[in-house]
Amino acid sequence: MNAGGWGRIAVRGATAFLDFLLPPVCVACDQPVDAPGRLCAACWPAVSFITDPRCTCCGLPFELPVGEGALCGACVAAPPRFTRARAAARYVGPVRDLILRFKHGDRLDLTPALARWLVQAGGDCLDGADALVPVPLHWRRRLGRRYNQSAELARAVGGLAAVPVLTQALVRRRATPSQGRLGRLARLRNVAHAFEVPVAAAVAGKHLVLIDDVMTTGATVDACARKLLAAGAARVDVLTVARVIHAGEGS
Description:
- By secondary structure, the chain is of the alpha/beta class.
- It has helices at 3-21, 73-77, 93-104, 111-121, 123-126, 139-145, 149-161, 184-191, 219-230; strands spanning 84-90, 131-134, 171-172, 195-196, 207-215, 235-243.
- The protein has a four-stranded parallel beta sheet with strand order 1-6-5-2, with helices on both faces. A two-stranded antiparallel ribbon has the order 3-4.
- α9 links the parallel β5 and β6 (235-243).
- α4 packs across α7 (149-161).
């Protein structure tokens, strides 16, 4: 047997030993599962993955079948600056709990599972992409949290999809209040002029994919897209783990 064969056997043996010491558990509820990074049989049905039919632009899911290339009312009324946005699942149930633990609970071990969801959901965004750009945190918030969850996701997705990651292509110069309780217009005002592109040459002419954990109204990613396009990016898409779906949207 060659060295590669022995190496694969060693990896499988080490994995089996680790699974014996630390049995894999569901990423949402910690019940036993057959492989790391998976959901258990009880949590899987509770995850509302977003699939077609959906808005061609922002990815908002439609309740009923629509024609190819259909846009939601919001994208018709006020087209966003990004070309396309995709999210893996709705921000409800186990997905909401997962993201809160990942974002605020130091659960970086969830990164690989969430990155796989992003790759599965964002094939049409990642296809032909030149680089991934994580939505940045202001340095004070990052100091308190100790990591930028979007950057962690971008690195993991970049490894899976073989796409470079530009962690410094976009920076947040202005600290903004939390947007959790703000509506769309308030969010737009809140993030206006918050982002900057330090070196335009780093993004000029490139197809970029913004990576974030949750898309709520789209105000933050739209503000990021505006800055990247103004700096010369050829196209900006958006890929998030989850999306908040408000009552009445997508009907």
